[in-house]
Structures are given as structure tokens and as C-alpha cells.
């Protein structure tokens, strides 16, 4: 038997059927069936019970499954070890970025990494911080830029500032070095919808303080919040990292509302070890 046959065996076992396994492996159903028959001939036993609509493992198949998975994991470990020794980096780097938070240093890091390793695919997706953290924990993302500092993951804070109020010149809030949360809540606010880090931090702080802000408008993009605030439709609430790129507005820190932006990851794969130095350089330069 070979590794390809083991991969087919594991796929059929996990998908509980030949059709789904074929789709997962990008093969025809007959091709998968051929591989399973071959491994069953080599072992001299049937691995699957095909007597019902669903495909179920026989006792022999149940005994073989953990060893097949272990063999595939061992083969991948060999590839990783060779890649580390030879400096070969390939595959797909899966990066997450919290919605509504523009941190250009991350883009610089991705561009620098791509120049050095052009054959590596980069998948960049946006989501709320909780979703991104869950993806990193589940090994569905290699690294993510999130709001806050989640526990249980390796992290590096890249932006330590918190939330700011964005107002046009001449606004009453533009006169002070900062604004209290209580005073901020006396104005109609323009902020992201629930589920985004900025809104979560704002809502949590207001609930703790017993405040009930009036959210006049909800938009995701920082540029849209800025455009609406610039027209006097409310006070924009933004993360400091996004507000820094809005010179047409005056931004005032909101007191006692920290929301660090953190790069988080779970384990250092070959790809991640190659990417992290680019992050360090880009964020240090910024």
C-alpha cells in the first residue's frame, strides 16, 4: 500500500461515503473505489461495510484508521523537516484581518513576503475578532490581526492605542486632548455594527458604565464613518489605527477605552516562520 491509498481510505472514513471522498480528493468515485479495493486486497480484509446506504468502517477499518492518520501525519512532518533544511517554502498562507481596521503594515508585510516567496498563495479574509480567533484555534487560519489580546494564543501587540472620536474642525470635542466616555455618549455616534471589535469595545464599556449611547449610523468601512462624520452627521468612533489615515478630521482619544490590535497565531509552521520576520520588519518600520 502507498500513502495515496491511505489518503483515500482516511477520506472515505471521514466523509462516510465514496462520493464525498471523491469530491474532497478531486477524483472520480470509481477512482477512489479502485484505491480502496487495492488496499483491501493488500491487507486481506474489508475495511468498509457497503451493505447499507451509508459507508461504515468494519472493525478492521476502525483499527486501521488511527494508524493511517498517523502515517499521513508522519509523511507531512517529513516534508516540513525537509522544507526547513532546504529553505523551501510553499503552500498557502492563510491570514485573517479584523473588519474595519486598516493597518497598512500588514499589507507591507504581505507584499514583502510575496516578493520573496512568489509561489506561495496568500489567502486574506476579513471577519470579526471572535471569528478570527476561533479560526486560528481550529487551525483554519495561520495568523490573524485581531482587536484585543486573546488568551491561549501566541500574540504580539502591533497597535497599543484604543478608540478615538473623529470630528470635523471646529467641533466642541476637537478642543480637548481627550474625551470621556460619558461626554462622548451625549452625541449621536457613527460607528461599526455589532460584531466588530470597535463596536464591541464601545458597547462593553458603555454597559459597564451604565451609559446608553445613541448610535445614529452604522457602517463598516472607516472611510465611510469619516465621510459621514465630516459632514456633521454624528461623531465617528474609530480605532486609532484607522483614524491616523484621516487627515481631514480631528481625532480625539476616548479615555479608558483601550483596544490593542494584536497579531495572533497558534503554532509556527514553516510558512509562518517565513512570514513572521516580514511582519516584524514592517511593524517596526511603521
Question: Could you characterize the architecture of this molecule?
Answer:
It is a single chain. The N and C termini lie far apart (53 Å). The chain contains 11 helices and 12 strands. The radius of gyration is 26 Å and the shape is elongated. It is 46% helix and 21% strand. Helix 1 crosses helix 4 and helix 5 (104-116) packs across helix 11 (270-285). The strands form 3 sheets. A 5-stranded mixed sheet has the order 4-3-5-12-6, sandwiched between helices. The longest helix has 28 residues, at 59-86. It has 3 domains: 3-86, Arc Repressor Mutant, subunit A (Orthogonal Bundle), CATH 1.10.10; 92-159 and 262-285, 3-Layer(aba) Sandwich (D-Maltodextrin-Binding Protein, domain 2), CATH 3.40.190.10; 162-257, Periplasmic binding protein-like II (D-Maltodextrin-Binding Protein, domain 2, 3-Layer(aba) Sandwich), CATH 3.40.190.10. By secondary structure, it is of the alpha/beta class. The model has no long low-confidence stretch (mean pLDDT 85).
| Helical segment count | 11
Number of strands: 12
Strand content: 15-25%
Write down the CATH class of the largest domain: Alpha Beta
> What's the story with the biggest beta sheet?
5 strands, mixed
**CATH topology tier name of the largest domain:** D-Maltodextrin-Binding Protein, domain 2
Helix percent band: 40-55%
User: Which regions have little confidence, pLDDT < 50, spanning 5+ residues?
Assistant: none
Strand order of the largest sheet: 4-3-5-12-6
- Characterize the overall form: elongated
Order of helices and strands: HHHEEHEHEHEEEHEHEHEHEEH
- Count structural domains: 3
Radius of gyration: 26 Å
Distance between the termini: 53 Å
What's the CATH architecture name of the largest domain? 3-Layer(aba) Sandwich
Amino acid at each position: 500500500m502507498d500513502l495515496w491509498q491511505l489518503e483515500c481510505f482516511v477520506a472515505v472514513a471521514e466523509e462516510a461515503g465514496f462520493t464525498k471522498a471523491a469530491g474532497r480528493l478531486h477524483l472520480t468515485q470509481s477512482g477512489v473505489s479502485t484505491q480502496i479495493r487495492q488496499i483491501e486486497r493488500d491487507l486481506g480484509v474489508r475495511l468498509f461495510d457497503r451493505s447499507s446506504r451509508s459507508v461504515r468502517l468494519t472493525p478492521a477499518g476502525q483499527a486501521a484508521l488511527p494508524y493511517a492518520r498517523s502515517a499521513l501525519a508522519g509523511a507531512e512532518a517529513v516534508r516540513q523537516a525537509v522544507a526547513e533544511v532546504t529553505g523551501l517554502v510553499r503552500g498557502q498562507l492563510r491570514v485573517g484581518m479584523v473588519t474595519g481596521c486598516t493597518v497598512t503594515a500588514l499589507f507591507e508585510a504581505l507584499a514583502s513576503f510575496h516578493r520573496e516567496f512568489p509561489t506561495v498563495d496568500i489567502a486574506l479574509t476579513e471577519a470579526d475578532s471572535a471569528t478570527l480567533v476561533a479560526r486560528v484555534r481550529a487551525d483554519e487560519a495561520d495568523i490573524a490581526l485581531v482587536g484585543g489580546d486573546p488568551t491561549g494564543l501566541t500574540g504580539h501587540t502591533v497597535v497599543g492605542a484604543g478608540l478615538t472620536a473623529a470630528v470635523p474642525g471646529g467641533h466642541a470635542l476637537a478642543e480637548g486632548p481627550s474625551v470621556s466616555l460619558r461626554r462622548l455618549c451625549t452625541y449621536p455616534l457613527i460607528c461599526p455594527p455589532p460584531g466588530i471589535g470597535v463596536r464591541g469595545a464601545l458597547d462593553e464599556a458603555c454597559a459597564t458604565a451604565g451609559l446608553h449611547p445613541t448610535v445614529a449610523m452604522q457602517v463598516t468601512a472607516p472611510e465611510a464613518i469619516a465621510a459621514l462624520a465630516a459632514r456633521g452627521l454624528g461623531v465617528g468612533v474609530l480605532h486609532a489605527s484607522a483614524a491616523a489615515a484621516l487627515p481631514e478630521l480631528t481625532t480625539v482619544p476616548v479615555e479608558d477605552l483601550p483596544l490593542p490590535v494584536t497579531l495572533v497565531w497558534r503554532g509556527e509552521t514553516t510558512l509562518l516562520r517565513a512570514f513572521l520576520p516580514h511582519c516584524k520588519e514592517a511593524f517596526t518600520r511603521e
